[in-house]
Amino acid sequence: MFSPYGKIISEDFLWHTRGPKRGEPRGFAFIQYSTKEEAKLAKEKMHGRLACGRPLMVRLASEKYLEEAAAQNSSKAGCKTIKSGTTSTISGQVSRSAKIAAIKNKLKALDEERDGAKKPKAS
């Protein structure tokens, strides 16, 4: 399905490993092309095409990582703009303590959101 757009180096299909859906596909896969241009071409041609009656969502793995990093940085106080390839989080070199801090920030935001929904506003 994706081979007409370039030389595929690797394919990684993900399957459920536990629970009642064990052995069934999880609904996504990773495909690595030999060049970035081939990957971009495949993305342009395949994004939105129907497969088994459902539209395919095709994006570069780095795009998803950049979107998540942007969401994580914008959730902190003081919104920062991300410059591609300049910060350690963009290059994929995220330290363990940075990951822990991000998880703690997310949990704190969820707690604040939950507490705000429970308490009626006094006017």
Automatic annotation (TrEMBL):
Keywords: RNA-binding
GO molecular function, one term: RNA binding
Transmembrane recorded as keyword: no
Pfam family, one: RRM_1
Stored SUPFAM superfamilies: RNA-binding domain, RBD (SSF54928)
Domain RRM residues, every copy: 1-63
PANTHER family: TRANSFORMER-2 SEX-DETERMINING PROTEIN-RELATED
UniProt name for this protein: RRM domain-containing protein
Lineage: Eukaryota, Viridiplantae, Streptophyta, Embryophyta, Tracheophyta
